[in-house]
């Protein structure tokens, strides 16, 4: 398992080994000891999620109220996607910046997205599945989004796809609008939460 921290501190990419033989393949996309060594605490799993998307579907950019927020450990068990993280923590040194990782069902590469970081992805082929280990259960009243098409963010969606968004995501505010509306988590609250883990 190789581990790499993205340009937003606290977001990690985990690249597991795949073992192929005449039966097929084996991989362990989540390994608790590697996770704990990189991130500094164990991952508490309160819910697992699974979604399936056709090519061009963009889901996100989503986040939950922090604290506690919802941390996510995600990987792609079928198809391929570009996964995007956005630092939306007001006061963070990397506020407004994004990074991305290519996830697919060949590498089983995974991404850890801590609480307070905005998360989204685009499916690059039909029938692309996303698997999540989430730190908390779903709390619809505390789930928020910013538009993935915010021109100020200029997220790296491929030019050759026609974005397909949910109605909710299509109506989501820009990062600046969400900040003005007081929807964004503060960096201080996030740090305090991370220290408690
Ligand atoms: C996220 C979620 C949705 N739902 C329901 C609500 C709705 O009827 C349906 C689809 O919900 P959404 O449109 O929010 O699904 P989706 O757009 O796939 O939401 C996901 O997007 C990515 C980017 C994330 O990071 C996830 O945490 C999650 O927010 O599923 C649950 O019951 N539990 C859940 O945990």
Automatic annotation (TrEMBL):
Pfam families xrefs: dTDP_sugar_isom
Domain of life: Bacteria
EC number(s) stated in the UniProt entry for this protein: 5.1.3.13
Pathway assigned in UniProt: Carbohydrate biosynthesis; dTDP-L-rhamnose biosynthesis
UniProt-listed InterPro entries: RmlC-like, RmlC-like_jellyroll, RmlC_Cupin_sf
GO biological process: dTDP-rhamnose biosynthetic process; polysaccharide biosynthetic process
Subunit field text: Homodimer.
Family the UniProt entry places it in: Belongs to the dTDP-4-dehydrorhamnose 3,5-epimerase family.
Described function: Catalyzes the epimerization of the C3' and C5'positions of dTDP-6-deoxy-D-xylo-4-hexulose, forming dTDP-6-deoxy-L-lyxo-4-hexulose.
Protein name: dTDP-4-dehydrorhamnose 3,5-epimerase
């Amino acid at each position: 398992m190789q581990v790499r921290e993205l340009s937003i501190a606290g977001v990690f990419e985990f690249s597991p080994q795949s073992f192929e033989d005449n039966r097929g393949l084996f991989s362990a996309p989540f390994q608790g000891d590697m996770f704990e060594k990189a991130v500094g605490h164990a991952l508490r799993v309160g819910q697992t999620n699974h979604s399936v998307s056709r090519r061009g579907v963009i889901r996100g950019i989503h986040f939950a109220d922090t604290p506690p927020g919802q941390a996510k450990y995600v990987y792609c068990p079928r198809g391929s996607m570009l996964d995007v993280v956005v630092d939306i923590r007001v006061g963070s040194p990397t506020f407004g910046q994004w990074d991305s990782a290519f996830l697919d069902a060949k590498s089983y590469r995974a991404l850890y997205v801590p609480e307070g970081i905005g998360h989204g992805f685009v499916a690059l082929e039909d029938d692309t599945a996303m698997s999540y280990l989430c730190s908390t259960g779903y709390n619809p009243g505390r789930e928020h989004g910013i538009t993935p098409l915010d021109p100020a963010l200029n997220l790296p969606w491929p030019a050759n796809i026609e974005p397909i968004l949910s109605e909710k995501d299509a109506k989501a505010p820009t990062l600046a609008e969400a900040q003005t509306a007081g929807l964004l988590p503060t960096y201080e609250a996030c740090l305090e939460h991370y220290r408690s883990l």
